[in-house]
Specification:
Elements: H1 3-20, E1 28-32, E2 44-50, E3 68-74, E4 81-87, H2 92-95, H3 102-111, E5 115-124, E6 133-142, H4 167-180, E7 185-191, H5 200-208, E8 213-215, H6 219-227, E9 231-241, H7 252-273
Parallel strand pairs: 1-4, 1-5, 5-9, 6-7, 7-8
Antiparallel strand pairs: 2-3, 3-4, 5-8, 6-9
Bound molecules: hypoxanthine.
Amino acid sequence: MNPSALQQRIDASVDHIRRVAPGRCPKLAIVLGSGWDGIADLVQEPVDIAYADLPAFPVLGVAGHAGTLRLGQIGPAGHLRDVALLRGRKHAYETGDAAGMKGAIRTLAALGCSTLLLTNAAGSLEPHMPPGSLMLISDHLNIVQRTPLHDEPGADRFVDMGAAYDATLRDQAAAAAVEAGVELHEGVYAWVMGPQFETPAEIRMLRALGAQAVGMSTVPETILARHAGLQVLGLSMLTNLGAGMDDQALSHAHTLHTAQSTAALAATLLAAIVPALSL
Ligand code: HPA
């Protein structure tokens, strides 16, 4: 899509959100990956907007839910915080296009969001982080070397990725996890294109390269968010050990099953982190 057509869609999306949810001004947006959706039930006075009504937002595949933007507030009484929850994301593996979330993320930036919290399900590359563990993303490896910024004309396409996952937000998230009694690991997330899972040889390669988790999302969104001037925080739910690290065969059903049984813990963690971040 050419830049001016995309900008028109972003402007129309912002207008629609302001019309349907007047007075909501979230600084924090959260993309909810597999297993992370439980936080949506904790939103007070929710306003739901279908992605289909937001022209800059992606059309999602038939698998998974249709995609809803939920605006509302989260937090303990007296410390409620406006949030925008993105329930559903477009993955690069669906079409080969890494820019599927470009319009959505730019809409959030135009709406006034300053921080994007990205969540995902991922494979663990560390035996001490078994399925059901949660991990703060300290940095990433763009293994596939794809970008959502190909058709960007300006010099700002040369985005500094030196501090992609904000150190202050990470400290605050880690402290909130301790306070809530939720174990939170920390490590490097490697992005693979998918949709196939890795071979055992690929998992050995990723471990040798210094990754602690592997997944099929998040990195394009981090790049888009940094390009749009947003700060980023990332969280992974580890649903399985990487291929060949145990004798478990990998499948989407297995990912979703572990994600479901870890959902309550993930919601507890997010509920603790959301009010703790300085935005
Ligand atoms: N590899 C890639 N993506 C994933 C995995 C995995 O093992 N588990 C969940 N998402």
